[in-house]
Write a structure and sequence with these properties.
Number of strands: 14
Largest sheet: 5 strands, mixed
CATH topology of the domain at 74-175: Ferric Hydroxamate Uptake Protein, Chain A, domain 1
Number of helices: 2
Low-confidence stretches: 10-22
Strand content: 25-35%
Strand order of the largest sheet: 1-7-8-5-6
Mean pLDDT: 77
Structural class: alpha+beta
CATH superfamily of the domain at 74-175: TonB-dependent receptor, plug domain
Length: about 260
């Protein structure tokens, strides 16, 4: 009896182990195959995603940036209003500079307390010195304000290249002459035209002015012409009182040709 009981207990203990037996390797392969089949079926039903790449290169337009390079230690100003009569009036915008007025069109440049011949003035890379009595023809009076392109002032010690007698500073003025085609950039052949027409009126002296500029240029050649007429009577104060003599009348005409390589 003892031997039969032991055999029955051993059989009963062996049956649960068979229920939790590890499935054979063939079953795992079958599950993996079914999952792959489902994935392929889903991929066949989905719409394909197409990716397109741009093969043509778009030609960007040429961008031209205009500006003036200034030397460190300089201060430049550009007339934002052509209502000024005298180019020297622009110095009032420069720190440390001012104008000694000697008439409506003859402003004497002053910089840090010095004026007259102690302040060097260059116009179109040429040095100008006053020669008339009582400074009747200061350098900046040779370039009217409506035709002034820029006014540059060297702050501190001026370089030797700016001229001689620069103990009171150095000022460089440039006039409007139009631009070459492309303005220094290598572009295809073409023609560029520039123009300017301006005018103004002042009631204090019943004065008026008109100015004009026209230019036509290629990349290498430029032809320009400009002119100014300024006229005014003695200016009034306190109604009908006049300051004599403060009338003025000036005409200026320029015709020029430029070449660059």
């Amino acid at each position: 009896m003892n031997l039969k009981l032991k055999i029955a207990i051993a059989a009963a203990l062996a049956s649960p182990a068979q229920a939790f037996a590890v499935p054979p390797a063939d079953a795992d392969q079958q599950v993996v195959a079914e999952q792959q089949a489902v994935s392929e079926e889903q991929a066949a039903t989905e719409e394909p995603v197409s990716v397109q790449y741009a093969t043509d290169r778009e030609a960007l337009p040429t961008l031209i940036v205009e500006g003036n390079a200034t030397r460190p230690g300089t201060f430049g100003t550009v007339p934002d209003s052509t209502g000024l009569k005298d180019t020297a009036s622009l110095l009032k915008r420069v720190p440390g500079a001012n104008v000694n007025r000697n008439g409506p069109l003859t402003g004497i440049a002053q910089y840090r307390g010095m004026y007259g011949n102690r302040v060097n003035v260059q116009i179109e890379n040429s040095n100008f010195k006053e020669v008339g009595p009582n400074s009747m023809d200061p350098p900046l009076s040779h370039i009217p304000a409506p035709l002034t392109e820029s006014l540059q002032v060297f702050r501190g010690i001026a370089p030797v290249s700016s001229g001689i007698e620069t103990i009171g500073g150095s000022i460089i003025a440039k006039s409007r002459k139009g631009n070459f085609y492309g303005n220094g950039f290598k572009l295809t052949d073409g023609v560029e035209t520039n123009g300017l027409i301006t005018g103004g009126y002042s009631s204090v002296d019943d004065g008026w002015y008109t100015a004009g500029l026209a230019s036509i240029a290629t990349e290498n050649h430029k032809l320009y012409a400009s002119g100014v007429h300024q006229e005014g009577r003695d200016y009034f104060y306190k109604g009908d009182k006049k300051v004599r003599p403060t009338q003025y009348d000036r005409d200026l005409w320029n015709v020029g040709y430029g070449y660059q390589r």
